[in-house]
Design brief:
Layout lengths: L8 E4 L4 H12 L7 E5 L7 E4 L2 E7 L10 E4 L3 H13 L3 E4 L15 H4 L9 E3 L5 H11 L5 E10 L6 H15 L31 H14 L6 E7 L6 E9 L5 H9 L4 E3 L11 H4 L5 E8 L6 E8 L3 H17 L9
Parallel strand pairs: 1-2, 1-5, 2-4, 5-6, 6-7, 8-9, 11-12
Antiparallel strand pairs: 3-4, 8-10, 10-13, 12-13
Helix pairs in contact: 1-9, 4-6
């Protein structure tokens, strides 16, 4: 859905991995350049970015830059989000936040529009975007629970380095060059070499042995689906891929669900494409998902360990539907519902 009017939109973190994609998506919609405010840290102040055959100037994310802004897309650290939020809110702008700062607050909607767009209606100035691994998983589960209630989920992720940011993307390239050139890799962003390696750690470990990322997947999925007691366990892994996260998922249902039933439900769900012909070596891959909007699902088969279980695999561009695209879709949904301003305003 195109934007309904030329809103003034601030993109905070405009020079980062997600912010750059947000600007590209706005450019594809031909959103007027004079209605876009590109913001970043002080070190990017004055930088020029191409936009609609011209350039827009990046400014430091100062409080006064939010004057007259209708919507602020924020893709920065949780610490910075928390600092900026009062300044954005008091100026009357809707804050759509990509970070973890507000996701689990009871008074902040956590939204994937295809699933729980109605939650936008009770926002109080902030709407959160889920983690880039949570969004596609929640969409797949939402499609499948329409066939039969979901009883239990286990998932293993294969996460691209762009989920960590532009510096991690550069590190993968530089390490790959070093290793291929016979030189030792020099980890900086990650604790270990990422080139030609996988790291079974995304974010810091908690006392129970799970990482913060794994807990995010569990808690956020439950909140989005409105299923607070859904049994779900995750193992998150960083892989040497630039863009697109993939996930291997096992789902247990209340009753036996055939692969054909699952394919039909998934194929009929907005934002999901079924790519599932393994006999011809056709299945989702991160390379093919990069730069595309859908969640691509395949390898749909019976789970040999449970009579009511299915196993499947999917890939999704983590910078698009996993972040920037979902933000724009939240804005579209807020406009459609007349919910740009907080409830009661």
């Amino acid at each position: 859905m195109p934007l309904q009017k030329p809103l003034k939109i601030a993109v905070v973190g405009a020079t980062g991995a997600v912010g750059s994609v947000a600007l590209k998506l706005l450019e594809a919609r031909k959103h007027p350049a004079d209605r876009v405010v590109a913001l970043a840290s002080a070190r990017s102040d004055g930088k020029k970015l191409p936009y609609l055959n011209r350039e827009i100037t990046v400014h430091e994310s100062r409080p006064d830059m939010f004057e007259g802004v209708d919507v602020a897309f924020v893709s920065v650290s949780a610490t910075v989000s928390k600092l900026l939020q009062p300044e954005i809110t008091k100026r009357g702008a809707l804050m759509i936040d990509d970070g973890s700062a507000f996701r689990m607050r009871a008074d902040v909607p956590l939204v994937v529009p295809e699933i729980n767009g109605a939650d936008i209606e009770w926002h109080r100035g902030i709407i959160s975007i889920p983690n880039c691994t949570t969004t596609p998983l929640a969409m797949v589960l939402d499609a499948l629970r329409r066939v039969s209630p979901v009883k239990r989920v286990t998932v293993a992720t294969y996460q691209a380095v762009s989920g960590t940011g532009a510096a991690a993307q550069a590190e993968l390239i530089e390490q790959s060059k070093d290793v291929l050139g016979g030189r030792p890799a020099r980890p900086a962003v990650y604790p270990h070499q990422i080139a030609f390696n996988v790291l079974p750690q995304v974010d810091d470990f908690e006392a129970d042995g799970y990482t913060k990322e794994e807990h995010k997947m569990v808690n956020e999925t439950r909140k989005i689906l409105h299923e607070p007691d859904l049994p779900l366990s995750a193992t998150c892994v960083r892989v040497p891929v630039q863009i697109s996260h993939s996930e291997a998922v096992q789902v247990e249902f209340e009753r036996a669900v055939s692969p054909d039933e699952a394919r039909e439900a998934l194929a009929g769900y907005v934002g999901i494409s079924v790519v599932d012909d393994p006999a011809r070596r056709v299945y989702p891959m991160p390379h093919q998902a990069a730069g595309r909007d859908d969640v691509f699902v395949g390898r749909i088969r019976k789970d040999l360990s449970h009579p009511n279980g299915l196993a499947l695999w999917f890939s999704c561009d983590n910078l698009r539907k996993g972040a920037a695209l979902n933000a724009l879709q939240i804005l579209d949904e807020a406009v459609r519902r007349g919910s740009l301003k907080p409830t009661g305003q």
